């Protein structure tokens, strides 16, 4: 005889598994079936009590917070122990050159000085300035200048005499212009005074007269005041003194009569 409970159970409709027969046979819960039906989500968290699942399929459980902390610790240790060096760029990548010793500087100073002297006469001051511009040690500069003076390759007095002859004899410059030239070359004032003391005032006047007469030929057709003003300016620019200029202008621009090589004014 069948019980009342058995009769009730027979009246119930058969239960169809929500996730198919396969899910039912595997014994997975509904949450497990959902997780397995979405493999593309990688590490999936199902429910509040489940942990992330390693997508590699080995079944190991992983803690993402713990993994991140471990990775940060590894990076910190890598940079703190000096094993990692930042790449160098530009000039920092090149090793600094060792400083040049004094012997090497002396050899370089000799080459520089001989090259300069092969082009023109140089004063001691000019040579010192030239060597200093090559970043040479002050001791090396002083020694090289002394060496050149000792062998006669630097001689300020001789240089001053040569410049005096060139500026006065060839270019017709007066004493003032020659003095300025010698000073600009760094020659000592005492040397300049000694050299100029050897010049003769009569020779200075003769040179001024000669250049005044040459210039007067281009002043023809001008009134006397204009001709005198221009001739005065010309001789002043050539470095002659005022009294020397006055006598040279009177000779080149006489008042009345005639003067050979000059301009006649009535």
Any idea what the shape is? elongated
Please report which band the strand proportion falls in: under 5%, 5-15%, 15-25%, 25-35%, 35-45% or over 45%.
under 5%
The major pleated sheet works out as: none
Mean pLDDT: 77
Report the count of strand segments.
0
State the helical fraction.
Answer: 55-70%
H/E element string? HHHHHHHHHHHHH
Structural class: mainly alpha
What count of helical segments does DSSP give? Answer: 13
Short description:
By secondary structure, the protein is an all-alpha fold. Helices cover 57% and strands 0% of the residues.
Structure notes:
By secondary structure, the chain is mostly helical. Among the domains are: 102-150, Orthogonal Bundle (Arc Repressor Mutant, subunit A); 156-199; 200-266. It has 13 helices and no strands. It has helices at residues 4-11, 20-26, 30-36, 64-80, 102-117, 124-132, 138-150, 156-170, 175-184, 189-197, 201-216, 224-237, 242-252. Helix 5 (102-117) packs across helix 7 and helix 11 packs across helix 12. Mean pLDDT is 77; it is low at 18-51 and 257-262.
Question: Which descriptors would you attach to this protein?
Answer:
266 residues; mainly alpha; Arc Repressor Mutant, subunit A; 0% strand
Tell me the layout of helices and strands:
Layout (H helix, E strand, L loop, with lengths): L3 H8 L8 H7 L3 H7 L27 H17 L21 H16 L6 H9 L5 H13 L5 H15 L4 H10 L4 H9 L3 H16 L7 H14 L4 H11 L14
